[in-house]
Design a protein that fits this description.
By secondary structure, this protein is an alpha/beta fold. The protein has 3 domains: about 200 residues, Rossmann fold (3-Layer(aba) Sandwich); about 55 residues, no CATH class; about 100 residues, no CATH class. The protein has 15 helices and 10 strands. A 7-stranded mixed β-sheet has the order 6-3-2-1-8-10-9. A 3-stranded mixed β-sheet has the order 5-4-7. Strand 2, helix 3 and strand 3 form a beta-alpha-beta unit.
């Protein structure tokens, strides 16, 4: 689907989209992370809701513990406004840790070790730390599980809109979210998506989907909106506006920003290193080319084939993590042994043409080694994707292993 430009500016178009949602949906809330996009969206929704007499605006905050203090300060400023009704969630959610094989996941706000928390619970009336508050919650839920479950709970059978601050120019996946031909939009609006196919009561709305990064900062300046001051520090650290990211920093893609913690907030960084295994390791090596993190070009140790090296890496891993990878690799090999002959690969080679490996069009044991060295837990390098059933199975497996340590 190509782009079709309107004859109005993106700010005016976003206001019209927000107005449409507020006029049609009995309930609504904003998913608010404290980043630049969700912050601009929250302020935009508040402005329109004020005009329509629909204040206060409910803001859902998922506090993942390992965040900048500047982010917490910004969240607090926004939630202190009388126009905002916050649901500040501080519950033990299961999060990906891509900088450690020994702790491939971690539990934020783990009630078993409050003395190790990166920071204490926010002392606010709107903080939700009781695990019994939500009837659907269970300790160790994935972030991706919690969000739709919360939507169903909040909707309670009534048509509800969740405002989400994603922009299509940030990534191909976000562009596809808008242009997908298989999703079910609300009344044909491509900037909406039905979340729950069973009930159909909750829709995500993306009013600023067509904004550029520059548009966010222009809106902040012209409208006088508050924003997260950590972006000022990122600017001083030499980052351009398109490089600034704000998210939990231990994920497969997000770990590249670990180095910022020690520069921007050294006190927070010292607690992060103590709390999350591998944080300092990731800070040191995640940007380096070579075998340590499997970046770009990896070297084969003397006396090994890529196949024997893969087994060496697997044997060095904690048992549940190795079992997870072995199962994925077995599926990968079985598929290529079945289909490879028709695709020009009658057997699994030790290595293939690098450009074909990079495009995932050729199997090889070198490709497997790179996946293992990258801590690519969901094996995206082997063409796998994360599934809900697998998330639940791995949560149980890893939790039992960690309890035995």
């Amino acid at each position: 689907m190509g782009k079709h430009y309107l004859k109005i500016d993106c700010y005016t178009a976003a206001r019209a989209r927000v107005r449409t949602i507020l006029e049609q949906f009995p309930r609504f809330y904003v998913s608010f992370s404290g980043g630049k996009d969700s912050g601009a969206l929250l302020n935009l929704v508040v402005d329109v809701a004020r005009e329509l007499g629909r204040l206060p605006v409910t803001a859902l905050i998922l506090d993942l513990e390992g965040q900048y203090q500047h982010t917490i300060d910004y969240l607090s400023r926004e939630c202190d406004r009388p126009e905002v009704n916050a649901l500040w969630v501080c519950l033990p959610l299961h999060l990906r840790n891509a900088v450690s094989q020994f702790q491939p996941h971690w539990l934020c706000w783990d009630p078993r070790c409050p003395e190790k928390w990166i920071r204490p619970l926010p002392q606010r009336r709107d903080v939700i730390a009781d695990e019994d508050y939500f009837p659907f919650f269970r300790r160790g839920m994935e972030f991706e599980e919690f969000v739709p479950a919360f939507g169903d709970w909040f909707a309670d059978g009534v048509d509800t809109a969740c405002f989400v601050g994603i922009r299509s120019d940030e990534s191909l996946n976000r562009y596809r979210t808008i242009t997908s031909g298989v999703k079910q939009p609300w009344q044909g609006h491509p900037w909406t998506t039905r979340v729950t196919r069973d009930t159909g009561h909750v829709y995500n709305a993306y009013p600023i989907y067509d904004w550029r990064t520059e548009d966010v900062w222009i809106a902040n300046a012209r409208q006088g909106w508050d924003y997260n001051r950590v972006y000022d520090l990122m600017h001083l650290a030499g980052l351009g506006i398109h490089q600034m990211r704000l998210c939990q920093p231990y994920g497969d893609d997000q770990r590249k920003g670990l180095w910022l913690f020690k520069i921007l907030e050294p006190e927070t960084w010292s607690r992060v290193v103590e709390r999350v295994q591998g944080a300092n390791f990731g800070n040191r090596y995640v940007h380096l080319t070579g075998s340590v993190m499997g970046n770009i070009r990896i070297d084969l140790p003397d006396g090994h084939t890529w196949r024997s090296y893969a087994y060496l890496i697997l044997n060095s891993m904690p048992p549940p993590v190795a079992a997870h990878y072995r199962k994925k690799i077995a599926v990968f090999l079985r598929w290529w042994r079945k289909r490879g002959k028709d695709l020009g690969f009658p057997r699994i080679p030790d290595e293939a043409e690098p450009n074909l490996e990079a495009k995932r069009k050729a199997p090889s044991w070198r490709r497997i080694c790179k996946t293992l060295l990258k801590n690519d837990y969901w094996c995206k390098g082997l063409s796998f994707t994360q599934t809900k059933r697998e998330m639940e199975r791995q949560l149980d497996l890893v939790t039992r292993y960690m309890e035995d340590l």
